[in-house]
Amino acid sequence: MIADIQTIPELLVKTRGNQTEVARMLNANRGTIRKYARDRKAQGHAIVNGDLMIFRGHLGEHKRRAE
Q: pLDDT tens digits, residue range 53-67?
């Protein structure tokens, strides 16, 4: 299986900066597209085979440290 990996900035170039069109392509909110529009190195997100994958940070890490 070949994975097609892209970023939101790459899709914005393809759609000539149209955030609404990128949001429709990914079934995501336009605000989400704005949030990741400057993430050029894909540290917080990636688009794999047309599905938006996000990095949610270190969720729950503060609870694990307290134990």
A: 999 877 777 767 766
